[in-house]
Specification:
With 191 residues, the protein is mostly helical. The chain has one domain: Four Helix Bundle (Hemerythrin (Met), subunit A) (Up-down Bundle), CATH 1.20.120. It has a three-stranded antiparallel beta sheet.
Length: 191
Amino acid sequence: MVVTSDPISQGFIPFLVALDEPRYAIAMARTASPTRPSLLAALSGAIVIISVFLPWYAITIGPVGSPDTLSGWDATGWSKIAIIGATLCAVCACAIAGDIHRTITLHGPVRKILATTGLIAGLICCAALIYRGLIPPQTSRGLARQLGLGLGVASSIIMVLNTSRQWALAFPDRAHRQLRARRPVRRRIAR
């Protein structure tokens, strides 16, 4: 006769395993690459910076000899806010990507501060571009929106989505309520 200390062979099945272990946050869905949100945020920040110098408005009514298009830099001061926000967001995203690839070493609080700063800067940039897309400058009679403004708004939205993903990856230790242990289902055996 073989004696084992296995609980299953002794006649009962433990349904609560490791009750004394700490419970952590529920695992989030991971992207294929942990650096993808950071790299996309940096790339879309660069596109926003380039789009500020592209034509934002086309003049449909104006005097002879006036320029046909206005870039965002020439048309409004909101574009300067968008450049500052996009630059700050791209720098924060590059620093986080460097930390993920272990090129630079960031401590946990610094990474969280960079992720939060990048998200806030991206939101400010996106708000400035959407505001100028919806409400053109005051002296804008006869202005039509151009490709540069649309490209800037689209890439700023992509930048905000990716900085929010990298922010969520920087804060995985949110407290969740503890799950109750499930009781075993007893099945009756037909005789």
